[in-house]
Amino acid sequence: xxxxxxxxxxxxxxxxxxxxxxxxxxxxxxxxxxxxxxxxxxxxxxxxxxxxxxxxxxxxxxxxxxxxxxxxxxxxxxxxxxxxxxxxxxxxxxxxxxxxxxxxxxxxxxxxxxxxxxxxxxxxxxxxxxxxxxxxxxxxxxxxxxxxxxxxxxxxxxxxxxxxxxxxxxxxxxxxxxxxxxxxxxxxxxxxxxxxxxxxxxxxxxxxxxxxxxxxxxxxxxxxxxxxxxxxxxxxxxxxxxxxxxxxxxxxxxxxxxxxxxxxxxxxxxxxxxxxxxxxxxxxxxxxxxxxxxxxxxxxxxxxxxxxxxxxxxxxxxxxxxxxxxxxxxxxxxxxxxxxxxxxxxxxxxxxxxxxxxxxxxxxxxxxxxxxxxxxxxxxxxxxxxxxxxxxxxxxxxxxxxxxxxxxxxxxxxxxxxxxxxxxxxxxxxxxxxxxxxxxxxxxxxxxxxxxxxxxxxxxxxxxxxxxxxxxxxxxxxxxxxxxxxxxxxxxxxxxxxxxxxxxxxxxxxxxxxxxxxxxxxxxxxxxxxxxxxxxxxxxxxxxxxxxxxxxxxxxxxxxxxxxxxxxxxxxxxxxxxxxxxxxxxxxxxxxxxxxxxxxxxxxxxxxxxxxxxxxxxxxxxxxxxxxxxxxxxxxxxxxxxxxxxxxxxxxxxxxxxxxxxxxxxxxxxxx
Length: 672
Hints:
eight-stranded mixed beta sheet; signal; cytoplasmic vesicle; alpha+beta; EGF-like domain; 19 helices; transmembrane helix; 672 residues; Growth_fac_rcpt_cys_sf
């Protein structure tokens, strides 16, 4: 506690949080102290609302210890409008924890109705406050109650325990525990799954004074080693023995162990919540193996493994889980234990005992106080748990338009420059990530206020890039663009489309770099042809060029580039003398028929060696020769009749090859 005003008594003082009330874990409360001289102990109801001199601050009631229970004083102050109560000790002693009078259940139940913070102050500290407030014309006394460090918060993971019981037949205390397990289950499971917390359930037991007695037999297992800590009300004690509570506690310890072995510690919460709802004394299923096994299967645990872990409750031996639990509990049997758990339920957070109600929001607030600053889960920043200092505008952090350096935390706030800025949080400047080389842009970077933009060259597609690293990958410039305008092949490389003409005899048009031009092979030394070179377009003929001969000459069958006289050509076919004889005996018509028949035979064989196009050129050459021997027009025969009407004598295959070669082409080209 810090006394802020007046300056004459200002300073910091220790206080002790009570076992009842709602501490504002992780927060502070600034309030005005009000002392009522007509009700200094607060044991009766205040006759009028408690109000301060300043009027705009919450009221912190100040009362003396004595004459009634602590919880009664807190209840009366709360009813009068106080937001917190300070109880002044009546003896000079060290601070102690104000507990609830469990021996007076009608008063103890007030604990559940108290929603204000409670604290005990030492006699000297409290008396200085009373003296200041008792002065004539006294100024307002303003104090700040600080719970920000009431729970240790060393790191980003909270370790906590719940000391509880499976008993649901002990009255309101058991009802509250069962209700808490069911209401807190989803939060606990979420925190465990995300690694925010490390939770362990524990169960309170005691030893039996006289092992083997009837009393111990009813309340204990394992020959009096582990006995029930809490009782069973009259409504259920005839049907359920307290030892059954110990057995079910052991079952839940086994569930917790098996769940932890599976690296799923949150399963205990699911089992415990389900058991408290469906396996109750009210429905007669508490301690029922079938009900317990059904709950185990519901959370994917093997019931037989749970039973094996539990062992024999009548065995004269220690149970490892119960024994470890007993040692962790601490008590008069273990005076060296760092923590002595004496009450049910008890919550510990980072080895600090939780003070307050066993309610979802109250426990959640205490858990959130156990995280180091700014490491708390998002759930801890809910408005029901804390005040957003940044939204309240009470911070001194840098702001510019919609940007600000205020980061809300569970305990308050931090000034931290947003991404893209640098500074101490109260002043921030833009960072030029492009100049510093920290942008991660693949190609181009443009700095923006608080960030940067990446971009890619034309022909590239960007991934990422808006205030984050980018990757530029080349687009397929040939796909979806009508082959990028290329007549033949299109190759996409580094974001650029390049055309090519892979067919032999073609070249890329230098004018547009897209179309293909025919290469005139005849321009290069007449392509080797002795007389005439005729250029061909390979796209139409599949040929580059063909060599031809002038009138009176024919292609040399042995060298397609050379020309020989026609009579030499016929002689090379072995039909020259035969033609002369036929011309003398049957006239020119017969000669023509014989020659044409020989040509037809030769062309047929040539077709088997080459393809159809060569036949056309061979026919043309023979036709030209035959025209010199005899005109074909007006003789009553068409050219096809002349070609197929007569049959020449059979020629050797070597002559077939010679005839096919006389076409004199450069041969067909192929696509490359």
